[in-house]
Predict the 3D structure of the following.
Amino acid sequence: MSEPSLRITEVFHSLQGEARSSGMPTVFVRLTGCPLRCHYCDSAYAFHGGERRSFQNLLDEVAGFGADFVCVTGGEPLAQPEAKSFLSALCDAGYHVSLETSGAMDIDGVDERVSVVLDLKTPASGEAERNLYSNIRLLSKKDQIKFVICSREDYEWSRFKVDELGLAEKVGDIWFSPSWQQVSASDLADWIVADKLKVRLQLQLHKLLWGDKPGV
Ligand code: SF4
């Protein structure tokens, strides 16, 4: 039987720039491939190419960084069926594991120890019709939902979805993130405060520190 493996774009060590563990030293494992094409995508370099690597080879590299947190990202990690087993292998190795997923793939079978960070794609992403709403019932308080907001219309849509889907009762954190250079963080902050929303503003720390580039 062949060793389990994944197609990988990059493995790197940085500070987590998003969501609940923002600011924590984290190893990122970026899987290759994504079936979506969001207008604002900042990781299109992960759509193609990459290198097929065994789980053991990846686990060895991750261990070498000595971090407690591992984030499996993409592309869309769940586009590779082996990703779910790899997430479990990371949990077995004792890491705090998060999964960044587009919300367009079924999260059923993702290890319960993983904190899922699920995007709900807003209309301006161009991919809102890909949202797989059956995923919502599989989320719990360890999980997080992210809205990348490109306009006031996206904000209104996101606010409506938080209410319609009862997200505050389902997940631990709801993040409203301004799309890089499309909505100002201060405008989004003002809207959240004015509407007294129970959501959290997310700034992409890695981009503020190092700019919009791969490997950070
Ligand atoms: S789901 Fe993520 S990786 Fe895929 S196109 Fe959208 S932003 Fe890019």
